[in-house]
Write a structure and sequence with these properties.
Keywords: Hydrolase. One of its GO terms (molecular function) is acyl-CoA hydrolase activity. A six-stranded antiparallel beta sheet has the order 1-2-6-7-8-5, covered by helices on one side. A two-stranded antiparallel ribbon has the order 3-4. The protein is an alpha+beta fold. The longest helix is centred in the middle third of the chain and has 20 residues. It has a single domain, classed as Thiol Ester Dehydrase, Chain A.
Amino acid sequence: MDKPTQGNSARSPIKPDSTFDASQFVQFMSNYGHTGFIGMQYRDQGHNWVELAMPWHEDLVGDPETGVLASGPIISLLDNAASMSVWALRGAFRPQVTLDLRVDYVRAAIPGKTVIAWAECYQLKQSMAFVRGIAHEGDIADPVAHAAGIFIQVESDGWARGLEEPA
């Protein structure tokens, strides 16, 4: 499928209720938007958890004098891992939105190091999912940040319209 062009309001070509595989999802999304820009990579997944990585690169630095990563890419990485943990537990892709995501920074990420985000969906209700996660550089006992959030499932009607159809 062709990449949507800038200004195209087409919805995601991912079909609702399709079987979810985080490695394939990350590979697909790496061609789109901020996911590709931050260089998000798949690492692993389990029944209710997903682990992603984001290698350090200069474009993501928030303070050029120190080389410390900006908070936005780390938040995005945690949000993606948390969202995917819901789909991992559901076993299928379902459209959802982040209702709440709290990120508590413990310390700055070390310049030059890859940041790893691990997140799990620990409670799944009919329309809500509760998640928690952690960002670190290889030692989960030395976290960069902790996250806790809630995702709300949305109706999938019209979600996977073709690119040729109006939004």
